[in-house]
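Loading example: each entry is read as two labelled lines plus one structure line.
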Amino acid sequence: EVQLVESGGTLVQPGGCLRLSCAGSGLIFTNYWMHWVRQVPGEGLVWVSRISADGNITNYADSVKGRFTISRDNAKNTLFLQMNSLKAEDTAVYYCSTEPKAAPGRQLSYWGQGTLVTVSS
Amino acid sequence: DIRMTQSPSSLSASVGDRVTITCRASQSISTYLNWYQQKSGKAPELLIYATSSLQSGVPSRFSGSVSGTDFTLTISSLQPEDFATYYCQQSYSTPRTFGQGTKVEIQ
C-alpha cells in the first residue's frame, strides 16, 4: 500500500522559515515526479511546486518562487519543501503528491494526508 | 498561465440523478485534464486522468469527456457517497492550475 506522510507543519511567525517533509513508502520513489499542493481551509487547491524523479528539474508557482525550495532524498524516499520568508498568505494545508513518470495524463495519483502551516504573529 | 474555469461552483442533486460538471481551459491543453474528488477533511483523490480514463477502483458511474477546450465530468447516477467537492486540473504545463471546485450536495 502506498503511503505518503507529511510532517513539519506548525505555527510560525511572518518572515520565518519552515521545512516540510513527505515520507513515501510502498512505492518505488524514483518512478515518480513529486508535487506540493496547498489548500487554505475552506478554499480550493493550489499547485505549489514539483520536482523530477532525479531531482534535476524543479518548477514553482509564481507566488512562492524565490522563497520556497523543493528537494528530495531518493535514498530516504523523502520529499522536502523549504519555506523561507513566510507570509500570512502561505497559511494552508500542504499536501505532497506523486506523478508517475510517463503517466498519460501527468496525473497526481497518490496524495498524503496533509500538514497544516499557520503563519501568524 | 492556463486558467481553468469550473462550473457550477456548487450544486444540489438527488440520489440517482445525472450530474455534470464542466471545466473550461483558457487555451488548448490537449487531453491533459484530470479530475479529483475531495471529501470533507480528507486529501483529494484521483478520479479520472487524461480526460477520460478512470482511475483504478473508481466506480464506473464516473466518466469524463471533452469538446474542444470544454471538459466534462459526469456522474451517471449520483450516490450518497458522492457528496464531495470536485476539482479539475490541467497538467499540460506548469503551473498546474486547478479549477475553483464544485461542491456537490445531496438533496
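Chain B touches chain A through 28 residues (CB under 8 Å).
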